């Protein structure tokens, strides 16, 4: 419609054509109306004229009119009533295509006036002799339930759907299952007034189970997905039945449709919980691997969904793809979101037997052009070193080679990674330090600078010109970012404690600048604490600042065990793709501690809710204290970012209620700067987290800052401090500060 | 489950959309592209699924359009993404090309297809052959109005009854695509064979087919010994017509085929493959003046086979100019759009070896920031009458109640996969490549 005629004129012309005496002209006019609708022009004014063309033998024209009605029924409810008669008549048409079309469209009109006329034709269509009509009618029940549930219940449609589950035609069975499951979700997700969970309308019993297992082998691919999804909800009576379900579902691994394969994986993973025969478990796991690998030949978007799920499966069963690391090697043309997931999985699969080929791949990736991917590959080298002690030497060598390339971002990332390696293997690779320091001037990213400064502070006594190196940063202190300021501050204090004579002036200067000229409360607070520590009790200062830190480790799971269990039950859904429980993104707000508790109680495992909660506390232990100020930020973050982590609320709640398994551990982790143990850092969206930045290396200031902003949480944090002070007497001084 | 499915142009404007459920307003589509751009700007990955303000966007990209689905629930992401791909496949079969223009030209039929392929957000019939039986572009040509789509709900939903051919024939194509990656030291880092059995079926009635392959697992399960080599397929995927439970129990591939052309099965082998076509390049670059390549190709398969339409893509830097080529066989072209030059050899006999030289000028001033990254050399080829895996069709039994005789024809071909690459373009003077 590229005519530039005024809108009114065009509609006027269309109206004339719609009322033309020539059939072709009318049909053409309808097409033009639809075209206008498609490009977003308002053609609702033509409603009565279009409606006149509804009674026709021409199916294509009928479809077009129906389409128009679906679009405008909501805005013109009183006119839709005019269409009802034709609809009802069409559900009696000799052509099943027309009958189905009529019932399908009626369900989509969503106008109150028409709904009341829907019940009778629907009743008829559910019993239609033609399966195409029946399968369409089955879904229509779900549509009706969404608008007026009481109509569905009063007319006995639910019972009729249950009957259709035993229909002779597998397509009908599949759609009946789909409709029932959809209604079930709608019914159970409504907030109930009593606080009791809704009973649900589709409870699968052994009888239905056998029907489903039979239909599974015969119906179309999408029908299989819906039946498999229903099967995953079934609670098996005993172990025998679980085994039976697994055996019947396994052949679906051979289906060409990736979503059928993933749905089958989900059923197996859920019912395998109750399979106790080790040989069968082994067999199931063995059969699962090849189809998962094959998913990597699918289009990239499907691959990505598969990879996100594989990542979860590997956390649950690390043995699944043991010998398959090579298939995860990145292809040159893979989209970057696929490459990133592959990296993550390669690290999960890394072992002594394959680390050499992995490192040579990672080194290759580090020379690609995509800067983001290069950084992640270098990070992966670090993760490899931390995961496999035996590979650390080789990893460090690769990193040194990369530093040798003198490509700015490569060097900077390598420095950050070296810092992590130092934290895992203290004092092992001191020989590398001169090489790192040689690149000091080239660093311009805060994280890289902060990392190198941390290294200098840590090994101040081994580096002859440490004071000289640090002085550069002290001189530019005010211009640096806060992360660098914090590190400079700590490093200079460390240097002073290790070599008091060479850094007297420097420490004075840095403390002065930090307390007087710096506008970050974190930096100021930290400086004040150091200052006070140093001036009152240098021994205490030594005990605090130079305390022994536990080495960092690579967490085996990126989500807490109980969440992992839930996500495994949600394989192939959005939750499994985001690695977040559904509640966190479907608009019911945060997952509270009580919700988790309820969830835990629902778990049919013997684990008591209490135990489960403790497990969470343990799993998330480190995520808690240091991240308070990040919670609001996490809120605003779009949830779709790959691998944003689980919210820290429950862990925090745990801590406040004193349920944390071991408060002492928490404390040690605060004071001993073991924030390094943090399994993940919510603010890092890249999913490769696990290695936290050294920014939190001395969390005093952050804690102080957090406490001053959120007094409630602050008090929760400080309460266990006495436990700590028993260990380290001189810190009483510190407590005064709070 | 999807509440809205839409096709957007690259500016994020909906070309066509269909609302299946009321819980998500189609107006949310306007947010899609800004969200994508925002993610990109913040340096985040734009993943196929993301969520914003309670709405989940799932999308794929095809040519110059986005296909987007939206949902509020914790929906089955795999199902929706696979459905979007299927939608592309169907639309391509209808219009040959799926891009902005073909969507604008065919909006009526796309609405019809969207109505038929998904109902209330759940995928329904997505087989384009079945859809074509009752949704056609030239409805006026039909003398009778399309009636009962029997096949849609048949127990055999993929085949209509009453099909008749004068000559009953079946054509089988066994196609193996080789993906492999060779490292700069000449070692094969990763290799896999993706096989596919495609069928063209011109058979009357409702024939029962049984396909026999030299499948190792099948011989093992039946206890028979194969004549010759048996192949161990790592994973097999079947068209929905194949009885999966039967295959699971005794590895028999039995089915009633759809009419016409379809992919019966695909399989994967990750047995190590020796590179069928070996390529290496010695690069001699004189910074600021010129760069020279010496490329060697070797056909590492038996003499009785021949590779056809071999294309070797050797990457060169973007700023190279004035190409000069000299090849002992075939022709060479510069393809600046691919940052590479292409050496094309129509026929490459097994065991043969050829050389090619290329010379490029380089600008005298070079941006120091440019990294020296060289993408791998990639190769395209096809070798007829040959499968790398050694897979063979042992028999194809065709039984129909009318008892006709049908002829099966089998063809084998091996070709490059979507990733046949060699990182063997090396600077002269670096460690020599040792071919396997």
UniProtKB/TrEMBL annotation, chain A:
UniProt cross-references to SUPFAM superfamilies, sorted A to Z: ARM repeat
- The UniProt regions of compositional bias labelled Polar residues, in chain numbering, are 716-731
User: What terms describe the molecular function in GO for this protein?
Assistant: clathrin binding
The signal peptide stretch is: none
| Keyword check for Transport | yes
Q: Tell me the GO BP annotations in alphabetical order.
A: intracellular protein transport; vesicle-mediated transport
Listed InterPro entries:
AP_beta (IPR026739), AP_complex_bsu_1_2_4 (IPR016342), ARM-like (IPR011989), ARM-type_fold (IPR016024), Clathrin/coatomer_adapt-like_N (IPR002553)
Q: Where is the Clathrin/coatomer adaptor adaptin-like N-terminal domain?
A: 8-537
This chain belongs to the protein called AP complex subunit beta
A single Gene Ontology CC term: endomembrane system
Q: Which organism is it from?
A: Sistotremastrum suecicum HHB10207 ss-3
Establish whether keyword Membrane is in the entry.
yes
Family recorded in the similarity comment: Belongs to the adaptor complexes large subunit family.
Relate the protein's function as given in its record. Answer: Adaptins are components of the adaptor complexes which link clathrin to receptors in coated vesicles. Clathrin-associated protein complexes are believed to interact with the cytoplasmic tails of membrane proteins, leading to their selection and concentration.
Compartment(s) where it occurs, according to its Swiss-Prot or TrEMBL record: Endomembrane system
The annotated region (Disordered) lies at 678-738
**Which parts of the chain are coiled coil?**
none
Keywords linked to the UniProt accession? Membrane, Protein transport, Transport
TrEMBL record, chain B:
Q: Which PROSITE patterns match?
A: CLAT_ADAPTOR_M_1, CLAT_ADAPTOR_M_2, MHD
| Annotated Gene Ontology cellular component terms | clathrin adaptor complex; clathrin-coated vesicle membrane
Q: Indicate where this protein resides in the cell.
A: Cytoplasmic vesicle, Clathrin-coated vesicle membrane
Q: Record's SUPFAM superfamilies?
A: Second domain of Mu2 adaptin subunit (ap50) of ap2 adaptor (SSF49447), SNARE-like (SSF64356)
Its Gene Ontology biological processes? intracellular protein transport; vesicle-mediated transport
One Pfam family from the record: Adap_comp_sub
User: Origin, by domain of life?
Assistant: Eukaryota
Cited InterPro entries = Adaptor_comp_med_subunit, AP2_Mu_C_sf, AP_mu_sigma_su, Clathrin_mu, Clathrin_mu_CS, Longin-like_dom_sf, MHD
User: Which controlled-vocabulary keywords does the entry list?
Assistant: Cytoplasmic vesicle, Membrane, Protein transport, Transport
Against Gene3D superfamilies, the record matches this protein to: 3.30.450.60, Mu homology domain, subdomain B
* Domain MHD, first and last residues per copy: 167-423
The protein's matches in PANTHER family, at most eight in alphabetical order, are given as: AP COMPLEX SUBUNIT MU
Q: Give the protein family.
A: Belongs to the adaptor complexes medium subunit family.
Report what the protein is called: Clathrin adaptor, mu subunit
């Amino acid at each position: 419609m590229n005519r530039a005629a005024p809108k009114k004129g065009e509609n006027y012309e269309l109206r004339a054509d719609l009322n033309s005496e020539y059939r072709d002209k009318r049909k053409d006019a309808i097409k033009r109306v639809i075209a206008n609708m498609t490009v977003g022009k308002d053609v609702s004014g033509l409603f009565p004229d279009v409606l006149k063309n509804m009674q026709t033998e021409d199916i294509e024209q009928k479809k077009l009119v129906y389409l128009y009605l679906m679009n405008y029924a909501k805005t013109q409810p009183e006119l839709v009533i005019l269409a009802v008669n034709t609809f009802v008549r069409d559900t009696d048409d000799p052509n099943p295509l027309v009958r189905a079309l009529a019932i399908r469209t009626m369900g989509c009109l969503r106008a109150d006036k028409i709904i009341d006329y829907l019940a009778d034709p629907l009743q008829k269509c559910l019993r239609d002799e033609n399966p195409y009509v029946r399968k369409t009618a089955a879904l229509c029940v779900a549509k009706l339930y969404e608008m007026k549930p009481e109509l569905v219940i009063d007319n006995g449609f639910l019972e009729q759907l249950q009957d259709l589950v035993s229909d002779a035609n597998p397509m009908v069975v599949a759609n009946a299952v789909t409709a029932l499951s959809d209604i079930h979700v709608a019914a159970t997700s409504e907030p109930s007034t009593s606080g009791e969970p809704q009973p649900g309308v589709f409870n699968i019993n052994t009888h239905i189970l056998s029907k489903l297992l039979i239909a599974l082998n015969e119906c179309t691919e999408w029908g299989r997905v819906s039946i498999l999804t229903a099967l995953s909800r079934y609670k098996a009576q005993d172990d025998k039945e679980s085994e039976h379900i697994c055996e019947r579902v396994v052949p679906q691994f051979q289906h060409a449709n990736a979503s059928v394969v993933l749905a089958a994986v989900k059923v197996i993973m859920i019912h395998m919980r109750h399979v106790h025969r080790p040989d069968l478990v082994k067999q199931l796991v063995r059969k699962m691997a090849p189809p998962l690998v094959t998913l990597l030949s699918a289009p990239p978007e499907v691959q990505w969904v598969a990879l996100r799920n594989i990542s979860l499966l590997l956390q649950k069963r690390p043995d699944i793809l043991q010998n398959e690391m090579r298939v995860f090697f990145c292809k040159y043309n893979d989209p970057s979101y696929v490459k990133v997931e592959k990296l993550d999985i390669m690290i999960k699969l890394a072992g002594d037997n394959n680390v050499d080929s992995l490192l040579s791949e990672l080194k290759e990736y580090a020379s690609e052009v995509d800067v983001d991917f290069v950084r992640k590959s270098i990070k992966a080298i670090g993760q490899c070193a931390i995961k496999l002690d035996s590979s650390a030497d080789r990893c460090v060598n690769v990193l040194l080679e990369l530093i040798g390339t003198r490509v700015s971002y490569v060097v900077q990332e390598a420095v950050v990674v070296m810092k992590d390696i130092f934290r895992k293997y203290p004092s092992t690779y001191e020989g590398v330090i001169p090489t790192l320091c040689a690149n000091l001037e080239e660093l311009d990213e805060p994280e890289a600078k902060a990392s190198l400064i941390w290294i200098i502070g840590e090994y101040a006594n081994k580096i002859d010109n440490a004071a000289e190196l640090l002085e550069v940063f002290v001189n530019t202190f005010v211009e640096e970012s806060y992360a660098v300021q914090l590190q400079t501050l700590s490093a200079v204090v460390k240097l002073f404690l290790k070599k008091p004579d060479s850094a007297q002036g420097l420490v004075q200067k840095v403390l002065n600048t930090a307390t007087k000229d710096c506008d970050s409360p974190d930096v100021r607070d930290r400086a004040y604490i150091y200052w006070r520590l140093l001036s009152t009790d240098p021994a205490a200062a030594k005990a605090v600042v130079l305390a022994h830190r536990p080495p960092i480790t690579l967490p085996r799971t990126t989500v807490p065990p109980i969440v992992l269990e839930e996500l495994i039950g949600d394989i192939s859904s959005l939750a499994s793709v985001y690695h977040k429980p559904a509640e966190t993104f479907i608009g019911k707000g945060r997952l509270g501690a009580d919700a988790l508790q309820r969830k835990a109680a629902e778990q049919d495992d013997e684990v008591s809710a209490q135990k489960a909660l403790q497990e969470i506390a343990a799993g998330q232990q480190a995520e808690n204290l240091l991240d308070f100020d990040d919670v609001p930020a996490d809120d605003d973050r779009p949830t779709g970012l790959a691998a944003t982590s689980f919210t820290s609320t429950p862990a925090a709640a745990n801590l406040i209620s004193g349920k944390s398994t071991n408060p002492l551990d928490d404390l040690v982790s605060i004071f001993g700067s073991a924030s390094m143990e943090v399994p993940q850092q919510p603010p890092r969206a890249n999913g490769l987290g696990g290695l936290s930045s050294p920014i939190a290396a001395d969390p005093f200031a952050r804690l102080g800052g957090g406490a001053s902003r959120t007094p409630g949480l602050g008090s929760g944090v400080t309460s266990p401090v006495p436990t700590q002070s028993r260990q380290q007497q001189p810190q009483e001084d510190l407590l005064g500060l709070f | 489950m999807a509440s809205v499915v839409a096709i957007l142009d690259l500016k994020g404007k909906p070309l066509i959309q269909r609302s299946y459920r009321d819980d998500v307003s189609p107006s949310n589509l306007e947010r899609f592209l800004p969200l994508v751009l925002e993610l990109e700007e913040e340096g985040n990955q734009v993943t196929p699924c993301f969520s914003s303000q309670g709405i989940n966007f799932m999308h794929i990209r095809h040519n110059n359009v986005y296909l987007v689905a939206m949902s509020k629930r914790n929906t089955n992401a795999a199902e929706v993404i696979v459905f979007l791909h299927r939608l592309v496949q169907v639309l391509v079969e209808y219009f040959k090309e799926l891009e902005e223009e073909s969507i604008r030209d065919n909006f009526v039929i796309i609405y019809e297809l969207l109505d038929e392929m998904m109902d209330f957000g759940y995928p329904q019939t997505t087989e384009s052959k079945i859809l074509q039986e009752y949704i056609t572009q030239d409805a006026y040509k039909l003398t009778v109005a399309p009636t009962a789509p029997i096949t849609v709900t048949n127990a055999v939903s993929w085949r209509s009854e009453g099909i008749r051919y004068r000559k009953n024939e079946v054509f089988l194509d066994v196609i193996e695509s080789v993906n492999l990656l060779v490292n700069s030291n000449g070692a094969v880092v990763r290799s896999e064979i993706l096989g596919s059995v495609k069928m063209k079926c011109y058979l009357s009635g409702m024939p029962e087919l049984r396909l026999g392959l030299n499948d190792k697992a099948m011989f093992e399960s039946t206890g028979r010994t194969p004549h010759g080599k048996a192949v161990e397929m790592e994973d097999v995927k079947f068209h929905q017509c194949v009885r999966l439970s039967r295959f699971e129990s005794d590895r028999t591939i039995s089915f009633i085929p759809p009419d016409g052309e379809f992919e019966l099965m695909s399989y994967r082998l990750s047995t190590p493959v020796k590179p069928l076509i070996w390529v290496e390049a010695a690069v001699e670059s004189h910074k600021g003046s010129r760069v020279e390549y010496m490329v060697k190709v070797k056909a590492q398969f038996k003499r009785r086979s021949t590779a056809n339409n071999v294309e070797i893509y050797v990457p060169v830097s973007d700023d190279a100019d004035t190409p000069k080529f000299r090849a002992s066989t075939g022709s060479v072209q510069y393809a600046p759009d691919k940052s590479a030059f292409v050496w094309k050899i129509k026929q490459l006999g097994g065991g043969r070896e050829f050389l090619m030289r290329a010379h490029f000028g380089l600008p005298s001033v070079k941006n120091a920031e440019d990294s020296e990254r060289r993408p791998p050399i990639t190769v395209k080829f096809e070798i007829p009458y040959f499968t790398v895996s050694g897979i063979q069709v042992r028999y194809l039994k065709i039984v129909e109640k009318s008892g006709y005789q049908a002829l099966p024809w089998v063809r084998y071909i091996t070709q490059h996969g979507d990733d046949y690459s060699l990182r063997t373009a090396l600077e002269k003077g670096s460690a020599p490549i040792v071919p396997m």
